[in-house]
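Quick sanity check, Tetratricopeptide TPR_2 repeat protein:
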Amino acid sequence: MKLRINLLPRSTIISLLMCLTLSGCAFNSIFISYPSQIAPYKQQLNSPTANVNLDAIAKEITSNDGLLYAQESGRMAQINGQFDKSKTYYEQAIAAYKAFDDQAKVSVSDMGAKASSLLLNDNAIPYRGPGYERIMLHQYQALNYLFAADAQGAMVEVRRSNELQASEQARYQKSQKSVQAMANGTIDAEVNKLGKTAGTVTSSFLNAYSYYTTGLLYELLGQPNDAFIDYRKAAQISPNNHYLQQDLVRLAKQLSMPQYDEFKRRWGDAQLAKAGQGQVVMLIERGFVPEKQSLTVPFTIDGNWQTISLATYQSSGRQAAPATVQGLGTVLKAQPIANIDALAINALKEDLPAALVRQALRVYAKAEMAQSVRSDSKRRNDQIDAGAIAMQIFNVITEQADRRSWLTLPQQAQIARQYVDQGQYDISLGNAQNTKIEVKADKTTLIWIIDTGNRTRFYSIIL
């Protein structure tokens, strides 16, 4: 069955194309790449002194990319230590995800967005976010509640994060049948390239940092059995992390679990606090997750210029170095728990087959439109047809890769733990300015360190 596209009059098409081209700002990421929109805010976050101005970006929460802007606004507020404001923005993002979940039928607006994507690009489709972003949204919301002294709210978000980890795994397993059915040389080549870029991480939903954070909150809020389960899941993903190994040995010993002897043999006995000591736990986030790049290939169909553009990631070859923390008596060296950039790369790899199907439909639709305009020109014996020229310009300009993603997430997460005597300490991360923390006997001081490159922020709470 051949696809038919009924065209508007040529003059109307030209006017419409000019309007679309000149009013790109009104279409969010359709004409202006998302990374370029977020770059000024990341620069503000990375400034040694200034805080980010959220007013402009928060206004975009009602736009086509509203879910993404809500996530970015919440993260930026969180980095600045505005946990209540961050919580409000994250609630809007959570509500947007729920609205997508509740759509039992394809809405009229969604149909319009999908139709627009056939003639424009994938940026016309409302942003829905990959699974790893949604999982981290609840992880970060749990930390918001914790640092706002709301333990009950934190536990609700911890459970939601765990449920999403399980549901994303089930969704991924189902999607693999579609991936295998659509396999071809182009898909295989790009999937293999992205796989090499992601390194040893093989999926977007297996996030050791999220499991560790939920396990930590379970433990700090008095549910050690649940903490043990999540620590063990984290260890299956990140098996070489010494601090995670010690957490498992310690809890297995405290809970008299049968795994204790095995863990002790593999990783050594548990290190426990001495009298008068408290525990320092550090969550350390470094850098920003990389931006998607655009891969564009021009070609002609029946003499008309077309392009295809796909999002991809380029391997930077750089990973954040393990953080060193001074000021606790001995130098404490953190260890990586998760590479968030690898999760992002795998999410793109998992979405690639569907993106290529949309790309093929779009190329066909644009080619049909161009051919129709050209045929109309021949029937009138036009020497120069503005409509045909405009169509070719339109096809090239509007073919923009979907480079949207949550760009204020960290590149890498690291963890560290140590028992120290109670008292006041001046700690620093590398060459960052010192910050004061307090350690109480038989308590845990949780320190959240966010290093954006030129600026390091410390947030702590005693539990």
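Posting the structure with no commentary besides this: Confidence is low (pLDDT under 50) at residues 1-27, 111-118, 178-183.
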